[in-house]
Amino acid sequence: MISGQKQVKEYVATMEAYLDCIVADEKSNRADMDSLSAEDEQLREEMLNKKYNAAVEEMERVAAEFNAEVRAFKEREDG
Q1: Is the distance from CB of 20 to CB of 51 less than 8 angstroms?
Q2: Contacts with 18 (C-beta within 8 Å, 6 or more apart), sequence order
Q3: Distance (Å, rounded) from C-alpha 39 to C-alpha 56?
Q4: In sequence order, what DSSP letters do the residues of 23-76 get, joined into one string?
Q5: What is the pLDDT of residues 5-61, one digit of tens each?
Q6: Which residues have a Cβ under 8 Å from the Cβ of 1 and sit 6 or more positions away?
Q7: Which terminus in the chain has less CB density within 10 A, N or C?
Q8: What is the domain range of residue 12?
Q9: pTM over 0.85
Q10: Is 30 exposed, middle or buried (0-12, 13-18, 19+ CB in 10 A)?
């Protein structure tokens, strides 16, 4: 269980770095562009939000699965 907890923490840390990276990458890409139409800027923002939100949802799913396993483990120990 401790090993699993360590792996989940490492996964979360990696995903947090990924989130920082995609935001920084988008800022950099936009800075390199001379000008964007309002429509293109909106599309880029929507794509960034979709990527970001998908990563957060995945992190939440992994955490929920791990927490369910911890609860099951504790119930077996207490049982």
Answers
A1: no
A2: 55
A3: 26
A4: HHHHHHHHHHSS---HHHHHHHHHHHHHHHHHHHHHHHHHHHHHHHHHHHHHHH
A5: 999 999 999 999 999 999 999 999 988 888 889 999 999 999 999 999 999 999 999
A6: 69, 70, 73
A7: C
A8: 2-78
A9: no
A10: middle
